[in-house]
Design goal:
single chain; about 800 residues; alpha/beta; Rossmann fold; Ubiquitin-like (UB roll); de novo design (two linked rop proteins); five-stranded mixed sheet; five-stranded parallel sheet; 33 helices; 25 strands; about 15% strand; disordered N terminus
Length: about 800
């Protein structure tokens, strides 16, 4: 019984007070009271509530320290003054323990009603790395997970409850794209099942069974029925448990099912964990990350042993473009390498692939014929000879189908030859690789554009039984500024194709590039190499940290003398007449290329400087123009590289469904379109994407079309792809105890790149490649180690080595 001064306020209460270090959930309140009374600490049914009947039947207030800390403020300043902070019915401040994948962690005190976005980005500073923030979990283990799309939610008790979470103990865990939400639910359920006191059956057995279901899902044993049962069980536990622990224990499950059901379905249906967390679904992360399912760990192990031809065979069997991908792949394998995610430097897998493909004669690989499902060979038309179309044609030809490949340009290769510069992808390397793919059962028809020279109807009329569309995305987005059609203003596609396909140099004098993606950087680096160019400026509306282009390409561009101007947006294109009319001095004769049109000669652009404002739904801060910061940039050539899209109008004219961005609508699994027998993949479906993703779409198209021709279901049953082959690891002697560093490929010196297109990135030496391969952690051994005994036994029975 406390009847003295409470916290120095001058007030006293004739009630029992129990001061805790943290928040108690409802069941723990009554359990604590029973413990103080000398009884077994277990919950009891309510009402009566402790404030009505607590210790020895007297009113008892049970609150945590944070709540008691507000009492002096309320008593000194009054309830009305206190209520000015926060929102109606949720007054005052709240302390959160802000932790997770965020720059600024710690305890933060904020007013009720503040949004999650303000806490995460303004106070927390946003994500630690480049991975976007995906969700926050509030309220401790019994809280729910709230997705980034709902970060404008004002924080109070009612809004959190409506969102499927709780205020709880004030925990706030920030999670990024590398967090698996199914694994998060499993983690908290493991804690909650152990915390259940066991008095009520639904909580004791319900939490245990929910954990078992989640465990099955993360290990690849889940079925759609698991999801139905999990949701039903979670609702039952929530509705029928006696205390607060059981009533809130379902929150992690229900909230993740509510907002991230697609992740559950990926685990259950596709047997994939896109966050690369669930090891029984991931296997070796480098292999799981590769769209082509390349056994990177295995060919790296072969390099370590000096078995280069065997390494090439492994690469080539998975990837019809080994030499191309050794140069321009976006390296998803390295992004998910365990050595890199563990705080070290990832294995230089692409550089090792480059070493192998440069050293081994590609003709050592003899592609075996793929067993087809169709009873007899069929005629298949492939429209578009880029990476997706060539991969599809090659796969279908290996099955024995008769393939006709139609390409609008005069050469094969698509974006590989028309957009990617020779200093990144030498033309002789590309020509040899393409030639090896169209040797047998492939008829090539160049200069055949869809909608002009051929149509879907004409192809079907000619007897083709299936068509695969891989026409890419080569229509450039426009700035929508007056003067954009002037001569001297080009889209990045127009500029790159003119040079790469026809050798025409369109740039001269001072060149400006607008954009921050790979095509913008490629255009800038091609321009700086052209004979009549004096300088190149790359203009981007955000900072270099937000640029979508590959970081190494941006660094190389700066090395080569390209000026990077960030936080800049164009607002007006200026040409000779308007510039003189507005009193701008124009320096003429700066370029031997005369750029004129009926609107006058291009002389520059007017830009405005930006600052980064509020964040959009993706978590990126929006560029906001700064009034009065306009400036003029003198230019002789302007290249617009703000994005590409497919030719939606042309596709729609063929009777196909397209979306608002002009992308062709196709099932992402089966690739079938709105027209019977017509399939599509690559950039025409996804919009601008990576080379390796386009190749993967082509490989999948070959399998799907063969299933279609055989009359079978287009969807192939999914399976977990784990390492199966045991490769003996090489014993490594640690001589000096230092952590081995990553070997980066050498680059051509900057002065040697001037005005020429020699390949910039060089290959590793044999010593460097083997040393780099030796750094591999060999994640495969977790799954194959037990196979070594069986392999040894088989070898002994045969009388030879394993």
């Amino acid at each position: 019984m406390l009847g003295d001064d409470i916290l120095g306020t001058g007030f006293s209460f004739d009630v029992h007070l129990v001061r805790g270090a943290g928040a108690f959930v409802c069941g723990e309140e009554t359990a604590l009271i029973r413990s103080i009374e000398g009884k077994m600490g277990e919950p009891r049914q309510r009402p009566p509530y402790p404030v009505q009947q607590g210790i020895r039947g007297l009113p008892t207030v049970i609150n945590n320290v944070e709540t008691w800390a507000n009492i002096p403020v309320i008593l000194r300043q009054g309830a009305e003054e206190f209520a000015k902070v926060g929102t109606p019915n949720n007054s005052g401040t709240k302390i959160f323990s802000l932790v997770g994948k965020i720059k600024n962690t710690g305890l933060v005190e904020v007013p009720m009603g503040i949004t999650i976005r303000e806490i995460v980005y303004d106070i927390g500073g946003g994500p630690v790395g480049k991975a976007r923030i995906k969700a926050v979990q509030t309220g401790g283990p019994s809280g729910g997970c709230i997705p980034a799309s709902r970060f404008d939610l004002p924080i109070d008790y009612d809004s959190l409850a409506a969102a499927g979470s709780i205020m709880g103990s004030g925990g706030m865990i920030v999670m990024d794209e590398n967090t698996c939400m199914v694994d998060v639910a499993k983690y908290f359920m493991n804690f909650l099942k152990d915390e259940s006191c066991g008095k009520c059956f639904t909580c004791r057995k319900g939490t245990q069974r929910m954990y078992e279901l989640l465990d099955d899902i993360t290990k690849g044993r889940g079925t759609p029925e698991h999801l139905t049962l999990l949701e039903e069980l979670a609702l039952a536990v929530k509705d029928t448990s006696m205390c607060g622990l059981g009533q809130t224990a379902a929150n992690p499950v229900l909230s993740t099912l509510r907002y991230f059901r697609d992740e559950y379905e990926r685990h259950v249906i596709d047997k994939r964990c896109d966050a690369f967390v669930c090891s029984e679904l991931v296997g070796a992360p480098c292999q799981a990350a590769c769209p082509l399912d390349t056994e990177a760990w295995r060919y790296v192990a072969m390099v370590e042993k000096g078995r280069y031809e065997e390494s090439y065979q492994l690469i080539r069997e998975a990837n019809p473009f080994p030499s191309v991908c050794a140069r321009v792949c976006d390296r998803k394998c390295e992004q998910h390498c365990q050595l890199g995610t563990g705080g070290g430097e990832p294995i230089a897998i692409r550089a090792i692939k480059r070493f192998v493909t440069d050293r081994v004669d590609p003709w050592v690989y003899k592609p075996p014929r793929i067993e087809r499902r169709a009873k007899s060979p069929a005629r298949v038309a492939v429209v578009g000879a880029g990476p997706a179309g060539l991969a599809a044609a090659h796969g279908l030809a290996r099955m024995g189908h008769q393939v006709s490949l139609f390409e609008a340009e005069g050469v094969l290769g698509g974006m590989l030859v028309s957009c990617i510069p020779a200093y990144r992808l030498p033309r002789e390397v590309l020509r040899k690789e393409i030639a090896s793919l169209v040797q047998h059962h492939v008829d090539v028809h160049c200069g055949s554009a869809l909608g002009h020279d051929i149509s879907l109807d004409s192809l079907f009329a000619d007897g083709f039984q299936a068509i695969f569309l891989a026409t890419g995305a080569d229509q450039s987005q426009r700035l929508e500024l007056a003067g954009e059609d002037l001569e001297g203003v080009y889209s990045s596609m127009e500029f790159l194709q003119a040079f790469n396909l026809r050798g025409t140099e369109l740039a001269g004098g001072h060149v400006g590039i607008i954009g921050g993606g790979n095509s913008a950087v490629d255009a800038a680096r091609v321009a700086i190499r052209q004979r009549h160019v004096e300088s190149v400026s790359l203009l981007y509306r955000r900072t270099d940290q937000e640029m979508p282009a590959y970081a190494e390409e941006v660094e190389a561009a700066i090395e080569e003398g390209i000026r990077l101007e960030t936080l800049v947006s164009p607002v007006k294109i200026r040409y000779l007449e308007t510039a003189r009319r507005e009193g701008i001095h124009v320096q003429t004769g700066v370029s031997p290329i005369k750029i004129e049109s009926r609107g006058g000669r291009l002389v520059g652009i007017e830009c405005i400087r930006n600052q980064l404002g509020d964040r959009d739904a993706s978590g990126r801060r929006k560029p906001v123009p700064l009034p009065g910061s306009e400036f003029h940039l003198a230019l002789n050539t302007l290249i617009v590289a703000i994005g590409e899209r497919p030719d939606g109008e042309g596709l729609a004219a063929q009777g196909l469904e397209v979306d608002r961005q002009g992308r062709l609508r196709a099932n992402w699994k089966t690739l079938n379109t709105s027209r019977q027998g017509v399939f599509a993949g690559g950039d025409v479906v996804t919009g601008p994407n990576t080379v390796v993703d386009a190749i993967a779409a082509g490989k999948r198209a070959a399998l799907v079309i063969d299933r279609y021709l055989s009359g079978e279901s287009l969807e192939e049953p999914t399976r977990v792809k784990l390492p199966r082959i045991f490769v003996e690891p090489t014993a490594v002697v640690d001589e000096d105890g230092e952590e081995p560093h990553r070997f980066e490929p050498a680059s051509l010196p900057v002065d040697a790149r001037n005005k020429n297109f020699a390949e910039v990135e060089l290959a590793l030496s044999a010593e460097e490649a083997m040393a780099e391969a030796r750094r591999c952690l060999r994640c495969d051994l977790k799954f194959t180690r037990g196979r070594e005994h069986g392999a040894a036994a088989c070898a002994a029975a045969r009388g030879g080595p394993s």
